[in-house]
Amino acid sequence: SFAGKTVGDKVAKPSSTLSGTGFLVRKNIVLTNRHVVEEIAKWHTTYGDHDLWYLEFAYPRQNGGWSTTLKRITNIFAFVDPKGGMDAGLVEFNRRDEESGFNYCVPVQFGDLSQIVIGADVGVCGYPLGDELLVHGQGFWRSGPVVHAGMISGIAPFDTKNPRDITAFLTDLNSAPGMSGSPLFTP
């Protein structure tokens, strides 16, 4: 939460931390990376039940700018891949539809894999460096996610006719810890 006492003209440094990014895949389920869910699980083991753990949603307002709201986590699940190839986790949360504005937060529509071609424009949205870009000194510096734009630089296997056969792709996007779990989206 970024609510708190003010220090001069700034909101006090939040007592929470940002550990990753995610996106809605169902009305009350967020997809993120396994290692983000494992971070939540580690804190859960140390401090107790999920009543203390929240997701912060940032979403665009209809008239511009960002709105944020907190949703209490009710369950977490990490996919385990013994070969280490999958890094995915799910976070379930309580959702009330009557909350003003949050009804604009809807699950993503997954794209067509045929759009994953070399040179295609893509973007990510999240919180690089966690709290570092949000907090300055003792106060709140800025809010909302950061958007990065780039393109698909390479795909593997190189010579595939079927987009479903793509096993990996490379982008020229900048990324940093805290962006984990961001979806890759097309314009």
Describe this structure in words.
With 187 residues, the protein is mainly β. Helix content is 7%, strand content 33%. The protein has 1 helix and 12 strands. It has one helix at 34-47, and strands spanning 6-7, 10-11, 23-26, 29-32, 54-60, 66-78, 89-93, 121-126, 135-136, 139-140, 146-156, 168-171. It is globular, with a radius of gyration of 18 Å.
Provide the fold topology.
Blueprint: E1 6-7, E2 10-11, E3 23-26, E4 29-32, H1 34-47, E5 54-60, E6 66-78, E7 89-93, E8 121-126, E9 135-136, E10 139-140, E11 146-156, E12 168-171
Antiparallel strand pairs: 1-2, 3-4, 4-7, 5-6, 6-7, 8-11, 9-10, 11-12
Report the sheet with the most strands, covering strand number, pairing sense and barrel closure: 5 strands, antiparallel
Please report the number of helical segments: 1
Structural class: mainly beta
Instruction: Detail the poorly predicted runs.
Output: 1-14
What would you call the shape?
globular
Average pLDDT taken over every residue: 75
